[in-house]
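User: Predict the full complex structure for these chains.
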Amino acid sequence: MQFELNKEYIQEVQSCLRENLDASLLHDINQLHPADIAEIIDELENEEAITLFSILDEEIATTVLIELEEDVRQLMMNSLNANEIANRLIPNMDSDDAVDIVAELPDKKKDDVISAITDVEQASVIVDLLSYPEDSAGGLMAKELIKVRRDWTPLKCVKEMRKQAEDIENVYTIYVVDDRDKLLGTLSLKQLLLAKNDEKVEDIYYEDVLSVKAYEKSEEIASIMEKYDLVVLPVVDELDRLIGRITIDDVVDVIKEEAEKDYQMASGISSNVDSADSVRMLTKARLPWLLVGLLGGILGAVVINQYEDTLGLYPEMALFIPLIAAMGGNVGVQSSAIIVQGLANNSLGFDSMSKKLGKEFMVAILNGLVCSALILVYTMIYKDNLDLAVTVSVALVLVIIFAGLFGTIVPLTLDKYNIDPALATGPFITTMNDIVGLFIYFGIGHIMYSML
Amino acid sequence: MQFELNKEYIQEVQSCLRENLDASLLHDINQLHPADIAEIIDELENEEAITLFSILDEEIATTVLIELEEDVRQLMMNSLNANEIANRLIPNMDSDDAVDIVAELPDKKKDDVISAITDVEQASVIVDLLSYPEDSAGGLMAKELIKVRRDWTPLKCVKEMRKQAEDIENVYTIYVVDDRDKLLGTLSLKQLLLAKNDEKVEDIYYEDVLSVKAYEKSEEIASIMEKYDLVVLPVVDELDRLIGRITIDDVVDVIKEEAEKDYQMASGISSNVDSADSVRMLTKARLPWLLVGLLGGILGAVVINQYEDTLGLYPEMALFIPLIAAMGGNVGVQSSAIIVQGLANNSLGFDSMSKKLGKEFMVAILNGLVCSALILVYTMIYKDNLDLAVTVSVALVLVIIFAGLFGTIVPLTLDKYNIDPALATGPFITTMNDIVGLFIYFGIGHIMYSML
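Assistant: Here is the predicted structure of the two-chain assembly.
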């Protein structure tokens, strides 16, 4: 029932496409789920992809288009003229998908497509939806929905819903509105099925309904739908009039993108890339943070240079430079990751900054003492040098405490000023902790050895 | 329409609970959405939480329970006896939630609760669901669903659905089965609404339906529902008989947990903790990777020690130890993160390992040359030492290439042997690259200076 794409299948498709068309294979492809067809097209070379796309059934092609990777979709859209897009693709789409497709077009073609749409109502829906920012409720919502009036009977509801349903693929919820379209509540299929014929909608509908305004941010929508376990969320305008609905499948993408963005930031990747992207794009996404790391390394060299005398007198201090730098980095990444994830999930609670720092301090002390004790024993046994052992282990405790506190303060502070706290994780915090760690280490070394 | 929890509200609730009960505030709380009530209870002290929970309306208390954090829920469950759980909570729950609650109980209490359930059918449903692993389709599914037979008329469907709907909160999809309960397809509300009276289900239902077997893994289910944009997915047994359905809201949690697990692993946190957990738990989750880092630091010291002579002769080499270590770590984390995310999203495509490595090699060369050129210029200007400049910049290119390739190979290899590739990110790869980076740096330094 489920399709598993493999390399052999792709090669078979490719050879069919090259040596002209083998009807049976292409017939098979038309039978697949559009998401599977999209997966196949994503793997093909440009020309092959356009050929395969062009011979798909019209309705299937529409859904495939939505499921394609963005760069492959661009390619397909470039192969179609404005009229084809306007009158062969768009009429088969839900309004939210249609607007996403149109929004991706270059300005000139966007205008051409909109003016080529023959269904005036559809054109105006798209123009309307285009006016909302992509990452807002308005940008995520579709206009297609089923609504009933509070004074209708169950029979009238079914009759009207029949009319409305003709345009709609999936019915998620039945909305109840007043005569000005103000959202009043919802009517579940269950309530409708169990209703008696002489009842009215207002007797049976459910009044408590969560809705969002059209300009609400997509992150906020994701967190509402997640918290309240919603499958669909109605969108209202400033006068609480029902204007659309957002379904969870679109929000799953937002949730995933958010999590991936944090992960990529923590890994030092500055834009949303995946391994299929070009060498140029991958390099561009990775170089910025490497340059931050490079600058950090240079500053580290400056710090060590400052303590050239100490290092000249006690060259064995060089041995533990990587240890100090690595531990500061690791602790900083850990503590900042816990804060960033807490902020993303709204699970930080209402403790004050000082209480949070107090807790991080305790954790750092515990981890620091364990690590320090181990390194003290190691250095005594293998180097038999008490001064070095004390220097390294005292520095290590201090570095771990500093890195833990710093990793807590920075994301909280960024968040306070509405800067993405995920910026604080990964290379930035590692680099900062490297430098400060070296200061601490050589500072203590300087004091220790100057006391001799 | 939406509730925003703040510290003042919590304090108000707390003082009401302490100075005996203020009926009006508690009445207000009962009006809130259960997810909001759960958020309030999560923030209270143990005794207060139990008190507030005990005075909630029965049906609300049930939903609140499901929304609580796991440790708080345990606390509430401990405050209830087996009979209360069996006959006051469970009858108000969907079967998937009921089984989650029962599964969390200690063995003895679990048995007591099951034998205390008076509704025999409900007890057998729970026993049945308990037999599936928690992270399988069976563990995620609920038994409540609406099904119609292929030979029914629309009228008969509506009549039968009325009966079935009484037990069901939300109707997502109407399933079509044969007389042996074998899943045949789905019937949308739209199809039912548009059907003529003399048609039968078999004339109008939609045959293509994706389903999963009861033992399918939850990650696999998440990726199916995501790929095909499903809101609900039916579960069948080995004979393709319909036994339950999984809704997207439960799968959103799986998707989030997966993403968070990868993020935490990359950040060096070894178990699922958040900042509200105790100092002991936080320390325990963080210490293991710090010890790995510590071991790496010690091995780094061993490597440098090996090249003591070189370092003794050319102490200025110490300056760039942090730079070499940091850059190796950063590049390794970047390349492994791209692979781990690609594996998680099934977006790696079908390129062979060697083609992937070839691409990573190109990216590494480009990044390496840019960084190297910069460090060459810096070292020449500020240190005016050609040997050092050449050593550092050649070592840097090699370290970046090695780290990039290593970060690509390790997660791909782990995945091949069914080990979680996310293990390869974060501290592990950083530590490995630190050590190898030092080898490369001092190795080249040794060669360079011995040529003098």
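Chain A is about 65% helix and 5% strand.
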